[in-house]
Amino acid sequence: MVKFVSLATLVCALSVNTVSAKEIQDHNQMMNHGDGHLMDMDGGMVMGQNTDTLPGGCDKIAATKEITVHAGHKYSEKFPGTMFAFDQQEFQFEPCTKLTVHFINEDDIRHQWMMHGLPKYLYPKGMFHLEVSGPGKVSGTLILPPGDKTYLVHCDIAQHMEKGMKAQLKVGKGSEDLPSIPGVTAAIFPDDYSGKPYDPVLDAPAPSSTPVATPAVAAAPAPAAAVDDSIISGTTVIGLAIGFIAAPWLAKRFKGMSAGEIIATVLEQVAHGVGYVIQLIGKLIKMVSGKNVIALPDK
């Protein structure tokens, strides 16, 4: 009887060790489908790999770096209200860095490490993407663009990002901090763990006390005769001067790029600039509105 119990205990212990030591499959024999797309039949995938083409504005590779990122349910335990997470929520590298990412999925489901907002002329759909189905490891390489910008990194599987699997990667100083990065920035819609029941009256958003602005009357257009028809106006001279000053920088920025790549880059930068101006105007409106709120006297 004692021998039987000892044998059963040994079998049980071996089973526990087998379960706890989860085997991680290394996906290092993937087929190359072109355009930086690597894939195997076991659920490993790399999209947007770039090991040697410099982005416009990069004269050389500034540094060569490697990181290992783990993904799984256990990394979300320190963030209440989440279900999945990476083991790191923030990364930072200098511009034009050649970066190799070793992505390890420790769950029995599919996870991704996906980076958005990259130059579309070099990275299809502006994306670098690592993916593993089940416990496994996959590696991919990209060359980061020049400039200071913050990129979103997340898992694009349904609800995985919403449940905590997201991070930010800053190139240079970064352009901003992204919202709702677990442990890094505040959530846009914070969870309430107070335990009190929801009251639709008390918990309803307070009505805005900001006075409604009166629409401004558009000024009448200037008469046609008042318009300066001079070919070489002051504005033209200023524009030519700015062009001569900016020409050396533009030549360096777009070195080695085709006409299509230059146009795509310019449009992308214009869109980014317009977004920044809109964000700045929104902040100014909030500041002005806050100063115009009139406090009502107590009755």
CATH fold name of the domain at 25-171: Immunoglobulin-like
CATH superfamily of the domain at 25-171: Cupredoxins -  blue copper proteins
Give the percentage of residues in beta strands: 15-25%
What would the principal axes of the Cα set say about the shape?
A: flat
- Classify the oligomer: single chain
Radius of gyration: 27 Å
Q: Find the structural class using helix and strand composition.
A: alpha+beta
Signal peptide: 1-21
Protein name: Copper oxidase
InterPro entries: Cupredoxin
Organism: Methylomonas methanica
Write out key terms for the chains shown.
alpha+beta; Immunoglobulin-like; 8-stranded mixed sheet; 5-stranded mixed sheet; flat
Q: Layout of SSEs?
A:
Elements: H1 2-20, E1 25-26, E2 31-32, E3 38-39, E4 44-47, E5 63-72, E6 85-86, E7 90-93, E8 97-105, E9 110-115, E10 128-133, E11 136-143, E12 149-154, E13 166-171, H2 234-253, H3 259-292
Parallel strand pairs: 1-11, 5-8, 7-13
Antiparallel strand pairs: 2-3, 3-4, 4-10, 5-6, 8-11, 9-10, 9-12, 12-13
Written overview of the protein:
It is a single chain. The protein has 299 residues and is an alpha+beta fold. Among the domains are: 25-171, Sandwich (Immunoglobulin-like), CATH 2.60.40; 257-287. The protein is 24% helix and 22% strand. The protein has three helices and 13 strands, in the order αβββββββββββββαα. It has helices at 2-20, 234-253, 259-292; strands at residues 25-26, 31-32, 38-39, 44-47, 63-72, 85-86, 90-93, 97-105, 110-115, 128-133, 136-143, 149-154, 166-171. The strands form two sheets. Strands 2-3-4-10-9-12-13-7 form an eight-stranded mixed beta sheet, with no helix packed on it. A five-stranded mixed beta sheet has the order 1-11-8-5-6, with no helix packed on it. The radius of gyration is 27 Å and the shape is flat. The N and C termini lie far apart (86 Å). Keywords: Signal. This is Copper oxidase. InterPro entries: Cupredoxin. It comes from Methylomonas methanica. Residues 1-21 form the signal peptide.
